[in-house]
Design a protein that fits this description.
This protein has 369 residues and is mostly beta strands. It has no helices and 28 strands.
């Protein structure tokens, strides 16, 4: 697909003249214009004289395709504020299953220690450490890195299909959940090196886990089970089943401190593919605008906005919500299988990654609202 042109913030546009060259009364001034302009569709606004041709007519868009260095199946992504770096992982490729970017535009391939099926990555500010988990490989189904470039394989307590990992600053603990296992589908680590299996109440296919600092609570969601596709834990050790709002494929969960709300999205169901909860125990179904296979949701505290991406549909594979209840479809950069999305407060930027596409398996968005 054709790449969208993007504005390079290192080369801002020159200041527009404050008076029209022919003295006309229809002058449009862009004096002191600042910020970045991104687009996925042509604007209906009139063209502004003085802007570079590449920026003309594209001032009303949101998501923009970004060039990626390898057509791997990129699945998980996170942001490190300490390093100023996005880090993405994949379950395909040969020695190139990591990529990093300082801005979502310029991506560099990193070298992974083993070609496992890496699905999830998170950052610990307290340890200054990335940790990623895998669903394939020998016992080395964890890897860590202090910088996104140099990775070390770590030993997991078992060969479960590890699917998601998160960090709790309050507990000083990584927590990962798995799709397979025998009442041992959680593992925790205080340092990313030493991992311990934890007992889980049911053998569901646990898909995603997140942490709520305000509730001091881990929350995980699953794609299997009957009325029990949620589990919670205050410490990562002791887990309790919770009643899910519907028996559909809950694929991702995140927490909004500002709203005091968990939000989960699903890849199956009718127009009920979101559920929310203030405590991890009581869940309410929310209406989604389209039947998209939603794969990941994240929260932007700066925009006060949930953002979810999907792997099915047309150019409607993004949706946003200010409250987890009312959702609006957004136009994605391309019709690709978007599997992960992360927010950078420092860059005011969403970045998503995809498991399909040709040289463009990332997209980003600024000033979404």
């Amino acid at each position: 697909m054709t790449e969208k042109e993007d504005y390079d913030i290192s080369h801002p546009p020159t200041r527009h003249a404050t008076t029209h060259q022919d003295g006309g009364a229809d002058e449009i001034s862009v004096q002191d214009l600042a910020g970045e302009l991104t687009a996925v569709q042509k604007s209906t606004l009139p063209k502004v004289a003085g802007l570079p041709a590449a920026l003309q007519g594209i001032v009303a868009g949101n998501w923009t395709s970004c060039v990626t260095p390898a057509d791997n199946n990129w699945f998980g992504i996170c942001w490190s504020p300490d390093l100023g770096l996005f880090c993405a992982v994949t379950y395909s490729g040969s020695g190139n299953r990591i990529m990093t970017s300082p801005d979502g535009i310029n991506w560099s391939i990193g070298s992974n220690p083993v070609d496992n099926g890496w699905l999830s990555v998170c950052w610990s500010p307290e340890l200054t450490l990335f940790a990623a988990v895998s669903y394939t490989g020998t016992i080395e189904r964890v890897m860590t890195s202090p910088n996104g470039l140099d990775w070390t394989a770590r030993t997991a307590p078992n060969t479960n299909f590890w699917w998601s990992v998160c960090w709790s600053p309050e507990l000083g603990l990584f927590c990962a959940v798995a799709k397979t296992g025998t009442n041992n589908q959680v593992m925790t680590s205080p340092n990313g090196i030493d991992w311990t299996a934890r007992t889980t109440p049911d053998e569901q296919e646990w898909q995603s886990v997140c942490w709520s600092p305000e509730l001091t609570l881990f929350c995980a969601v699953a794609i299997t089970g009957t009325g029990n596709r949620v589990m919670t834990s205050p410490d990562g050790y002791t887990w309790t089943n919770q009643e899910s709002a519907a028996d559909i494929d809950w694929y991702s969960v995140c927490w909004s401190p500002e709203l005091g709300l968990f939000c989960a999205v699903a890849r199956s169901g009718n127009l009920d593919r979101v559920m929310t909860s203030p405590d991890g125990g009581t869940w309410t179904i929310r209406t989604t605008p389209v039947l998209i296979g939603w794969t990941c949701v994240c929260w932007s505290p700066d925009l006060a906005l949930f953002c979810a991406v999907g792997y099915t549909g047309g150019t409607n594979r993004v949706m946003t919500s200010p409250d987890g209840i009312n959702w609006t479809i957004r136009t994605s950069a391309t019709n690709q299988e978007w599997t992960g999305v992360a927010w950078s407060p420092e860059l005011a930027l969403f970045v998503a990654v995809s498991r399909s596409g040709t040289g463009n398996r990332a997209m980003r968005s600024l000033f979404y609202r």
